[in-house]
Amino acid sequence: MAVKHIENGKFRVTYIDYEETAKQGKNIWKSKTYYTYTPSGVKITTARGHKTLIERREKELREEQKRLEHESKRKLSNQKLNPKNGVVHDKYNLYRILANVVAKNPCRSEKPKSLANARRVVNELSSFIAKKYPTLSLYDFRESHARDFVRCYKSHSISSIRTYVRIMRSAWRILNEHLNENNAEPVANVWENVKPDFVKSVASKKKVMRYSAFSKPWLHNFFAWLKEHNEDNRYEAFALLFLTGWRRHDILHLTRGNINHEHKYISVTHSKTEETTGAITYIYLTDFIRDLLASLPKRRNGRLFALSESTLRTTLDYYCEHIEAPVDYRVVDVGRYTRRSHTPHAFRRSCITHLKSEHFAGDLVNYITGHSGGTVDERHYNRFCVDYKAATEEAMLYLESIIKGEENANLTLDAVLHKLNMTKEKLAELMAA
Hints:
By secondary structure, the protein is mostly helical. The chain has 18 helices and 8 strands. α2 (about 50-80) crosses α4 (about 110-130). About 25% of the residues are buried.
């Protein structure tokens, strides 16, 4: 066990994994890497001038080391079965079936995201059974047990709980197919009896957090502050979040290959809908966006940013809580989590809100931000990428005016000229006349 300072605020925390130690019969050690951050959420890259921060971080990590070991012991105790009851050794013990059969094939989908989500829910049920009903047989699992498990999700949204129940229904059908192949009796799919009314009653106990967008003045002040305190190109990352309305994952995984300087556009295949609609957005490179992209250093992996989602979240939290809170800013403890009304996703919400407030067409806004369209026109006939300059330039210029604090003029001069289909030279000629 150790908390070792490697270099420049980088630490390695080593601890014993009691759960794996019990399984393998020998001490199993694991380690995690942690970094030191400034109060504004920026990772330090040199120890010089940060001695106090590093010492404080080392003390925090000693507590983190204790927490990791305690969590490992807790998991081990949760999964210990009662050796005095003969049902434990029954091959149809529910915990064993969940861990050894259901978790291996939890759903019919072969998509990595779907598999991971289904396996997570099955593993949570395994831990729940190991803790509360360790000797329960598969054939004794009742609707009351299923309902008891669903109540554990009372801090989740109703749509999430419905998804978890749907996953378990499917997992039980697959389990019955496995039992049939092994000439065993099928089990009742009790998840079919977990009705929507019950799910709704569980979700109704959840504390509701209303998520909000940012106002124009707040956005201007935030970007002005961020420009003065720009580290690791956070200004450029947040600016693209707002200008495009794209999701954090899509912005942080942009590469040089997403930019076409010859035809003046930046494009993305939206990760959330890649497997369904395959939606691609092309946005015209205005002078402002080109300058943003030109300021980014070239990286070996081709990525535009070397930032994590947690860095964006930490930066935003610091500004909201120490510099200027947005309108209706709230921090609420919801179940096991602390929720904030304004997160990095609020820049996507703000992009959509301000574009629609300026009466840009809804299907255009959906195209820019990567929302899957609800109408046939949006899904099949609106192809704004054919003329991305005409479709997106005005919207980009309007959003840029908010960042620059020109919202009182409503639109920048460039945006006005674009609306009038007029060049600056033509305007100069008219003024001279």
